[in-house]
Amino acid sequence: MKLKLAYSPCPNDTFAFHAMVHGMVDTEGLEFETVLADVEQLNTGAAAGKFEICKLSYHAFFQLSDSYVMLRSGSALGYHNGPLLVTTENSQLNKLRGEELAKALADAKVVIPGRMTTGALLLKVAFPMIKNTTPVIFSEIEKLVLDGSFDAGVLIHEARFTYKEKGLSLITDLGEHWQKISGLPVPLGGIAVTRRLDPDTARKVNRVLRRSIEFAMHNPSASQEYVTCNAQEMDPQVQKQHIELFVNDFSIDIGVEGERAAVALFRILTQVSPEINFRDDLFIL
Question: By three-state DSSP, how is residue 133 classified?
């Protein structure tokens, strides 16, 4: 059986999928037609029903959970790895705190990595007064804040390791804010399969993906060329940091704590967007 598999070119994804798409682990008869795309392109592509297997922001997944179910393996989830709200080093926003910061942000132009990204949701949770947001491809955000096109921006992926050296400063770590109010890890993204797949095939995909991640963890150099040729940030040390931060025990299996985090963030989404209906069968059995 051939399945259309879509994921991002970010190091954690290429690291995790390398073995299964290059025939280095047992795929149990499954074959994959791969598509690599920006996270928001993945979110919107899944919304259009283009992929059988797809990396999704949890924010997008919650909105698409009638059509997709999340695998237990493959999630980017953890502590101290959430999106960052940044501005330029000389911005007046750096001098403000509390109500003064909130008031200034209410009037600010903020660039985000897509409306369906978890970064966009965590921004809304932390700063509900921000209304003027513009979605762009995540790799453009640093440049757009630096050149003054926007007052602030939400950084994801490799940018969290490089923003300071590029002249940006942190307003708020949105992941740390989530951890403070919830006591739970940040559910950033995961690997979902269409609910059109029969349960046995979905479980097979999960086994293959887990096998691929475990292979990558035990053989980290095997995927290095594949990771590098797809990464936005070419510094091998940044790639290594990225992988170590986003590929962890939660990636092997979401576990009870990870499920609790996903459910908690989904409930928050239904509070800020009441038109979205909650459902609790989020993960394959």
Answer: strand
Answer whether 36's CB lies under 8 Å from 23's CB.
Answer: no
Query: Whole-model pTM?
Result: 0.94
Q: What are the angstrom distances between the C-alpha of 154 and each of 100, 141, 284?
A: 20, 7, 31
List the pLDDT tens digit at each of the 285 positions of the chain.
899 999 999 999 999 999 999 999 999 999 999 999 999 999 999 999 999 999 999 999 999 999 999 999 999 999 988 999 999 999 999 989 999 999 999 999 999 999 999 999 999 999 999 999 999 998 899 999 999 999 999 999 888 888 999 999 999 999 999 999 999 999 999 999 999 999 999 999 999 999 999 999 999 999 999 999 998 777 888 889 889 989 999 999 999 999 999 999 999 999 989 999 999 999 998
Question: What φ, ψ does residue 232 adopt, rounded to 5°?
Answer: -75, -40
All structural domains of the chain, each given as residue ranges with its CATH number in brackets, are: 2-78+186-272 (3.40.190.10), 84-182 (3.40.190.10)
* Pairing label, strands 110-112, 133-135: parallel
Tokens of 19: 């073995």
Instruction: With beta carbons less than 8 A apart as the criterion, state whether 71 and 192 touch.
Output: yes
Query: What is the rounded CA–CA span in Å between residue 159 and residue 164?
Result: 9
Residue 245 is encoded by which pair of tokens? 């931060």
Count of beta carbons in the 10 Å neighbourhood of residue 35: 16
Cα Rg of the chain (Å, integer): 18
Catalytic residue, from 157, 177, 218, 242: name it: 157
Respond yes or no: is residue 157 known to be catalytic. Answer: yes
Give the residue from 205, 173, 200 showing the smallest Cα distance to 190.
Answer: 205
Q: CA–CA separation, 139 vs 150, rounded Å?
A: 15
Distance CA 248, CA 121 (A): 23
